[in-house]
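Q: What changes when iron/sulfur cluster is included in the input?
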Amino acid sequence: MTPEQLLKEADRCVKCGLCLPHCPTYLLLESEADSPRGRISLIQALASGELPAGKSMETHLARCLSCRACESACPSGVRYGALIDGGRTLIADQHRGRPVWRRIFGLLSDRQRLERWGKFHTLLQRSGLLRITRLFPSMRLRRLISLGQFLPKQVGVLTELHAAKRPTGRLVQLFTGCVGSQTDQQLIEQSLSLLSHLGYAVEIPANQVCCGALHRHNGYPEQADRLCETNRLQAEKSRAECLITLASACHLELNEHLKSDLPITGMTDFLLDLPQDALPNLQPLTKKVVVHTPCTSQNDRSQELLRLIPGLEIEALPENSICCGAAGSYLLTQPELSATLGAKKLVGLKASNAEILITGNTGCALQFRQLIVQSELNVDVMHPVELFARQMENCTGNA
Ligand code: SF4
Ligand code: SF4
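A: The predicted holo structure follows.
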């Protein structure tokens, strides 16, 4: 968005304040500058040149989670998500000499670098040096290093074509993402086996790259557009009937920015939209799960999918409309606020006595895994499709 376009969009805000009670940072910090209305005023001042991109401006815009709870609540239909992305781009444009975050986003969005990071973390762990890193004064650095524990020990990117168990001539493309391609390998393998069981061949193009959400929400739309274009080319040259996503954040980004004729659908929706008799039989499971709804999944159908598992007790995590604090790179860029929001979620999780937490987004899963490890809780974190696929194993399916 150009400054003129930003001003035009921001002018649609009538400053009614109806979005304020929905904003996690406003509820936490009780400051107008950390509310949607306050940030829109700051973006107006920035875009018109009334205020420079100084430290305070940067801080208030950086504290926004981009959760877009305010956007859903706004009766005037202000496109807050586009405004905050545009505001951050103006700031990034004025601070071109600050490459640190760009490098970190580059690390997070590059599969090969993530693989190396996972190996480095294992090395730190084996040598005993990991304990020393826990003493680092920077919470950002501690969180960054600690995320390495969720990267697989045995790395590998599951690309290329995966044949169907019972070939039906149907083909889908699977989008595995950047961080997700490493941390969600079990989910990817189970999705492949589920799709194969249903008669679908699956392609994961070797040239598939990060969806670009990390870059777009941090002020680097050109990099995001470049990544999007690479993914668009993979979609365009495919014979697949649809592109299936696993993480809700990637899904939202691709849905809003991938200009392709290939229909995009989430894996949960894909399964639920199949004829009921096409789905496999599932083993019963007498456990309790709580379902966390990611901000990027407004019409989350996880509970609908889980209800197909006989015996499963399903509950929504309390305050599901409030962000868990993962918010893409937020758990690294704003570690203190992220941890405070995460700690609130943990209260609800503990009170539920659930054994499994379900979430359909990679970033949220990482946030919960980190919180659960820190508080020594015995709770598994899973994608709804992971649990569904697990209950399918050893069953004689209808498909
Ligand atoms: S963003 Fe919408 S809800 Fe919030 S103050 Fe502006 S007009 Fe009101
Ligand atoms: S996107 Fe979320 S954190 Fe940012 S202003 Fe809106 S409600 Fe608040």
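Observations recorded in class: Residues 100-150 form one domain.
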